[in-house]
Amino acid sequence: MAIKLLHIIGQLNVGGCEKQLLEMCRRMDKTKYELSVCYYTADKNALDKEFLAAGVSVYFIDKPALGPIRFFKKLCEIIRQVQPDIIHTWMYSPNFWGRLAGWWCGCRKFISSSRAMMMPLDFLSWCIERLTGKRTTWVVNSKALAAATSRGLRIPDCRMHVVYNAVDIAEQDHQTDRIEVRNELKLKENQPIILSVGRLTFPKNYPMLMRVAKKMAELDPAVRFIIAGHGEDESKLKAMISDLKLDNVILLGLRRDVARLLSAADVFFMCSRYEGFPNAAAEAMFTGLPVVCTRFAGADEVVQDGQTGYLVGIDDDNSATKRIFECLSNGQALATAAQKWARSRLSWERLLAEMDRFYECRPSGA
Questions:
Q1: Quick check: 111 pLDDT over 50?
Q2: 204: Cβ–Cβ under 8 A, 6 or more apart, which residues?
Q3: Does residue 265 have a pLDDT over 50?
Q4: CATH superfamily to which 3-166+347-360 belongs
Q5: pLDDT band at residue 121, thresholds of 50, 70 and 90?
């Protein structure tokens, strides 16, 4: 009999966490698992259709319109309808609401995933952990995040497990994509492109990229910084581009063709203040791009400084500029080592095998 697995997540927009969940659902054995996902924040870019195409039942609750009490009742209704063997909650809000409703409905097994280093560790988090902790197995995507979550919620190490994200960029004609993307952007074939991918939000620290772009313009006016992503800071970043007169920065908005953009780029730059797992950088490494990344907690678990990429201090504009310039000049050895590491350590086969182990076992005290 198939294991009924219900994923509860806040939203299904185009983000790292949501894409990991989608790709995992696509690859899971449907004879072994009966998959459902419930989310509760609307987004015009929601991935509903992609989940449905992957054979996943999708439920939506309009939490803001219902208020907390009616939302909780509706969530309980869905849990009773699905009758899951396991509830897997993703991120801070679902880790609270999903486990509370699941506990209320009698669910005996939870997987909780923390995916962001700045997850609030407040009184409600502490309470739900005390209530459901013995039924919960924690799965996080970096050792740094495991330590922070364990310390914040006083979770025993035996219930905290690290499963790195998986990466898989389909094989494609990189040279054709490189030419086509550059033609779309009206850039020359030999014009250096520095690519960043991620939501336009505070954690991604794009003001640092703007300052680095200003410095790079003095070293090589031909260099272009390309940002693929959308978010609430878009207007601020456009104003910064205008104020600094940055003719070398291009905001592309939300893109569904990141693999093509990676083919067109020469260096990948991640300037985040914090991440759960630097998925965009890992995808760049998998493709064979040299990576320059800020040294946030956990970054060194993916980018080994001087071996598979370069790590620089957060807001250390001078070091970032220097390392990007070095990658443009002589980054092939780093890129080759990075690709070898990513393809050997971040496979979907590895991730699915590790998650199978957690889904099949019973949490201590259950």
A1: yes
A2: 196, 198, 229, 231, 271, 272, 273
A3: yes
A4: Glycogen Phosphorylase B; (3.40.50.2000)
A5: low
Q: What is the pTM of this model?
A: 0.89
CA-based nearest residue to 177, from 268, 286, 270, 257: 257
Per-residue pLDDT tens over the stretch 96-110: 999 999 999 999 999
Instruction: Name residue 2's amino acid.
Output: A
Of the CATH numbers 3.20.20.70, 3.20.20.370, 3.40.50.2000, 1.10.150.20, which one belongs to the domain with range 174-345?
3.40.50.2000
Neighbours of 96 (CB within 10 A): 20
The phi, psi pair for 67, rounded to 5°, reads 85, 165
Query: How distant, in Å, are the alpha carbons of 7, 181, 189, 223 from that of 175?
Result: 39, 10, 10, 19
Q: Domain locations in the chain?
A: 3-166+347-360, 174-345
Q: Give the chain's radius of gyration (CA, Å).
A: 21
Hey, do 3-166+347-360 and 174-345 end up sharing a CATH topology, with the first three levels equal? yes
* pLDDT reading at 205 higher than 60: yes
